[in-house]
Amino acid sequence: MTDLLRLEGVHTNIGRYHILQGVDCVVPEGQTTMLLGRNGAGKTTTLRTIMGLWPASRGTITLGGRRIEAMATPDIARLGVGYVPETMAVFSDLTVKENLILAARDGEMDAGRLDWIFGFFPALRKFWLSRAGSLSGGQKQMLSIARAVIEPRQLLLIDEPTKGLAPAIIGALIDCFAEIKRSGATILLVEQNFHVAQQIGDSVLVMDNGMIVHRGAMAELAADVPLQERLLGLSLEAHQ
Length: 240
Description:
Layout: E1 3-14, E2 17-28, E3 32-37, H1 43-50, E4 58-63, E5 66-67, H2 73-78, E6 81-84, H3 96-103, H4 111-120, H5 122-126, H6 137-149, E7 155-159, H7 167-182, E8 186-190, H8 194-200, E9 203-208, E10 211-217, H9 218-222, H10 225-232
Parallel strand pairs: 3-8, 3-9, 6-7, 7-8
Antiparallel strand pairs: 1-2, 1-4, 4-5, 9-10
């Protein structure tokens, strides 16, 4: 198995706060790796640091054998990295169509790719010419994910995609992520819904206090209630 992404001794400081304190981890190519941890553990900071939105103060980040920790965010995106932030960050004054055009290479959307996206998120077709700001929270999340996958990506960084969503929409997201993985993409996904994590995760990284404190198979963590309670403060069963 090849490691697509590798972090070694990564530290990130935000102002006077030392958030990441030596993150060491690998993300295997072609798998969905869950990044779990209590609130404030450093999960979002890890994704933002990989994406270059917050610079690493120390350590190395390697994507496909190429060091990226000093690269600008647009250059990292051009290497085939998509990012879905927790805030969704859609352009509210633009239509659904315009949001996707901005995310497409050279502003040209592939019709087949677009139909593939509509298969998971039919609401985007329905509201194609509507302003993104008028969409519901779940529809905005669909649009945020659609923007990240409008072009094939080798790596997707996704931050809490199911937060606050209805079960039917969560089901569509699970199907979408499974299909993305089957297409050959690698996913690093922060998720607080442990039922979702158990369903789609191949491997798992658990963070605490800005460091990785556990690495392993998602199925093994899902089967070990005492380990869940020690690492996360509660069992996965409590979130199902």
